[in-house]
Design a protein that fits this description.
single chain; alpha/beta; Rossmann fold; 7 strands; globular; binds flavin mononucleotide
Length: 156
């Protein structure tokens, strides 16, 4: 493992992405940062699906409760559930509030069967001055620790 300072930033609504983020933290010994919004998303699945669709269409950036100074980190893992074929809206806020230029970004996501879809390419599009590495996708929280480890070892 390299001596670069590592941050694992993630958003998770129902816990799957958090599980993967915690595994990455154990493997890398980086700092964990959970992206949280001021307003809670609906618990009802249909309601959140409808809300997330509107938010994607409007490129909405929900307000976050905490802010983190990322300037000291060289490598930043960014994790999200897949919402409507891309990252969840809170990640859009996180990407827009911070300067990722010159940093290595390693994206990861959890999904319900559709795969990462546009998640990684959308992150790369919003961070044109970063080195965006190959992402890791897990069906819900099913990824095995050995798979995560293999991906991390091939990332840097
Ligand atoms: C609003 C919403 C939209 C979703 N859109 C997709 C999708 O486009 N493709 C997919 O495979 N799964 C989709 N899912 C399923 C989630 O990506 C999956 O359950 C994920 O593991 C949830 O992560 P979390 O527990 O960290 O919130 C969606 C779930 C929600 C709530």
């Amino acid at each position: 493992m390299s001596d670069k300072k590592i941050l694992i930033a993630f958003y998770s609504h129902s816990g799957n992405t958090k599980t993967i983020a915690e595994k990455i933290q154990e493997i890398t010994d980086g700092d964990l940062y959970e992206i949280k919004t001021s307003h809670e998303y609906p618990k009802n699945y249909t309601d959140i699906v409808n809300q997330a669709k509107k938010e994607k269409e409007q490129e909405f950036k929900p307000e976050l409760t905490e802010h983190i100074d990322i300037s000291n980190y060289d490598t930043i893992f960014i994790g999200s559930p897949v919402w409507w074929y891309t990252f969840a809206s809170p990640v859009r806020t996180f990407l827009s509030e911070n300067d990722f230029s010159g940093k290595t970004i390693i994206p990861f996501c959890t999904h319900g069967g559709g795969g990462a879809s546009m998640t990684y390419s959308d992150i790369a599009r919003l961070c044109p001055d970063s080195d965006v590495q190959a992402g890791f996708s897990s069906f819900e929280n099913n990824a095995k620790e050995s798979e995560i480890e293999q991906w991390i070892n091939s990332s840097y």
